[in-house]
Amino acid sequence: xxxxxxxxxxxxxxxxxxxxxxxxxxxxxxxxxxxxxxxxxxxxxxxxxxxxxxxxxxxxxxxxxxxxxxxxxxxxxxxxxxxxxxxxxxxxxxxxxxxxxxxxxxxxxxxxxxxxxxxxxxxxxxxxxxxxxxxxxxxxxxxxxxxxxxxxxxxxxxxxxxxxxxxxxxxxxxxxxxx
Length: 179
Ligand SMILES: CCCCCCCCCC(=O)SCCNC(=O)CCNC(=O)[C@H](O)C(C)(C)COP(=O)(O)OP(=O)(O)OC[C@H]1O[C@@H](n2cnc3c(N)ncnc32)[C@H](O)[C@@H]1OP(=O)(O)O
Known about the structure:
- By secondary structure, this protein is α+β, with helices and mostly antiparallel strands.
- The chain has one domain: Thiol Ester Dehydrase, Chain A (Roll).
- Helices cover 15% and strands 31% of the residues.
- The chain is built from three helices and six strands; from the N terminus they run H-E-E-H-E-E-E-E-H.
- It has helices at 39-43, 89-105, 173-176, and strands spanning 61-66, 69-75, 111-120, 129-140, 143-152, 159-169.
- Strand 1 and strand 2 form a beta hairpin.
- Decanoyl-CoA (MFK) binds next to helix 1, helix 2, strand 3 and strand 6.
């Protein structure tokens, strides 16, 4: 199995996903601190990332949060395969998108991903349980700067994927207007 070169740069963060110096500290909105088991009921259960019965979906379970840091888990199933026996990179990026988005929504607004950067650190075998963590690193206007990682083998296992993102706050009409 390939292991990462310890000398390599492991942060996916570019200038575009780094909060500017005058960014505000993230503040979680108490009203947004829904019981994680109820979020699907609020947003609908058809989400590829977290819908519990979506065929071939990630079925990410949100396991808790502390401040804007949120935690989740999912298992890589054969339908998530890219190269033989290994998770597709897009699947891992989608998982990071979901957990980063979870932390953004804890801020109290409605957020969509504007930019998502990923760093694939080590291959993830099919069958792996992936432990996801995400946090907000700053808020600037409508932009929430996010970062997180996915670990395999346990919550303290080796990092397999890192991600950084900018989420943009949008009005409710973003989801309801006809296109
Ligand atoms: C508990 C719930 C959990 C939910 C988890 C969900 C996880 C999944 C999340 C997703 O996958 S969401 C789906 C993927 N994303 C989209 O479909 C978004 C598509 N893009 C858009 O709809 C628009 O481009 C967008 C709303 C993001 C921005 O358009 P706007 O016209 O509203 O904003 P505008 O262009 O005026 O930019 C506003 C600010 O954001 C910045 N911005 C916009 N796009 C950006 C970008 N891509 N990267 C960095 N910054 C960006 C922009 O520079 C600007 O910064 P300033 O205020 O400082 O000037």
